[in-house]
Amino acid sequence: MRAFHAHALKKLLMMFFSGFCLQNEEALFEPYLVKSNFTVAGFSYGAIKAFEYAFTCKERIDTLQLFSPAFFEDKDAKFKKLQTLSFTKNSEAYTQNFMQNCTYPSTFNVAPFFQKGSIEELHELLHYTWDKTRLRSLHEKGVSIEVYVGECDTIINSLHVKDFFVECATVYYLKHVGHILQ
């Protein structure tokens, strides 16, 4: 009986997927999070995971929240290769630079949320292709899709993200904030 109760409690919590090199950072998005049994959310790389989960999930989902979704479809192969090579050559320096770019223009300390990322995760987020047909399908099923991007984001091009998602999502374009929306 106790195991069943723990499983039931797990189902009542919203799902949040973390970004590249991060863990448990959902507190950063507290002002925007829809805390519901039927919400799935993700930040950056985690937005990819949240979308994939929402698309394949057989359980009820009312809201999909994508915070600064990893979107590199506007980058060429040379950019992606350079990112991969830089990470492979010196993952510590790459990660430190990445974390600084994540927080820009704020000075917010994300160190408490740091978790070393892998080359496989970096490759996945750089080469992921967002599928508009699948986004529309999710939207047509009644899932409310919300996308949050910061005007000063130095990781992704927030205008390209806004333009891509606006057809099937409510897009919040936040002034004077970067990738972590702070």
Walkthrough of the structure:
The protein has 182 residues and is α/β, with parallel strands linked by helices. It has one domain: Rossmann fold (3-Layer(aba) Sandwich), CATH 3.40.50.1820. It contains 7 helices and 5 strands. It has helices at 2-11, 45-56, 77-89, 91-103, 119-127, 132-140, 158-165, and strands spanning 15-17, 39-43, 63-67, 144-150, 170-174. The chain has a 5-stranded parallel sheet with strand order 1-2-3-4-5, with helices on one face. Strand 2 (39-43), helix 2 (45-56) and strand 3 form a beta-alpha-beta unit. InterPro entries: AB_hydrolase_fold.
Question: Any chance you could write out the topology, listing elements then pairs?
Answer:
Layout: H1 2-11, E1 15-17, E2 39-43, H2 45-56, E3 63-67, H3 77-89, H4 91-103, H5 119-127, H6 132-140, E4 144-150, H7 158-165, E5 170-174
Parallel strand pairs: 1-2, 2-3, 3-4, 4-5
InterPro entries: AB_hydrolase_fold (IPR029058)
Radius of gyration: 16 Å
Reading side by side through the largest sheet, how are the strands ordered? 1-2-3-4-5
Strand content: 5-15%
Biggest pleated sheet? 5 strands, parallel
Low-confidence stretches: 1-12
Which properties best describe this structure?
single chain; 182 residues; alpha/beta; Rossmann fold; five-stranded parallel beta sheet; 7 helices; 41% helix; 14% strand; globular; disordered N terminus
